[in-house]
Structure formats: C-alpha cells, structure tokens
Design goal:
Layout: H1 2-10, H2 13-17, H3 24-27, H4 30-55, H5 61-85, H6 90-101, H7 103-126
Helix pairs in contact: 1-4, 4-5, 5-6, 5-7
C-alpha cells in the first residue's frame, strides 16, 4: 500500500525514487503521470485486498489465492521487461525477487493450513 500511495501522490516522480533516470520533460508528461497515478491507486487497492483477506483467511481464501497468483504473474512481467529493455535498479530487482519468490511458498503454506484445518474438522465431527 505504501508503494501504491507513493505513486498516487508523486506520479511519475515515484519512478525516480525507484531509480529511473528520467528527463524533466518526461516527468511532466500528462499521459505518463496519469498512468502512474492510476496504477498506483490500483496497487493500493491490491494492498487493501491483501489486508482484508488476512482478516479472515477462511472466508477470503479464493481471493487470497488469486491475489498471490496475480502478484507472481506481475513479477514474471518484470522478467519480460528485463529481457526486452535490460536490468532495472537494484530496488526494482529486490521487488522482483519478492514477487517471484514469495507467492509460491505462501500458497503452499496456505494450502497446508487449510488442509490441517479440514482434517481437524473431520476428526471433531467423527468424534
């Protein structure tokens, strides 16, 4: 939510914080600024949805799974960018690392928790 909020308030200037070397005229481009603020707001909503899912994992299980897969796919999109345009800043590489390395173990952990919860309910109901 912090990254999304930064993009909402700073527009293209947030890209400079991430290490982009942009000329002054690009920072003033209305299309890029609009897109940056739009994506920042969308990413903030993504954070809100993750927070909501964390409040009731059982109720929002499907939403959480979808969010984790989208996060993973977005990380893979960064790999496409690297192949086409080259290496980004170290900070963006760290973001990429979290996007492609965290979702799969989190999905496995979440599946294990759900399976354990189901097996406990089966044992309780048969007792």
């Amino acid at each position: 939510m912090i990254v999304g909020t930064l993009h909402l308030f700073l527009g293209v200037g947030a890209e400079v914080m991430l290490g982009a070397d942009l000329p002054a005229e690009v920072l003033k481009d209305p299309v890029l600024d609009s897109q940056n603020r739009f994506y920042g707001t969308a990413f903030t909503l993504y954070g809100v949805l993750l927070f909501l899912c964390a409040t009731d994992l059982k109720k929002y299980s499907l939403v959480l799974r979808c969010l984790l897969w989208v996060f993973f796919a977005a990380g893979l999109a960064r790999v496409v960018s690297i192949v086409i345009h080259g290496m980004p800043s170290t900070f963006v590489l760290a973001l990429l690392g979290s996007e492609v390395l965290l979702p799969i173990p989190l999905l496995r952990w979440f599946t294990r928790i759900q399976n354990e919860d189901q097996s406990h309910r089966i044992v309780k109901s048969s007792s």
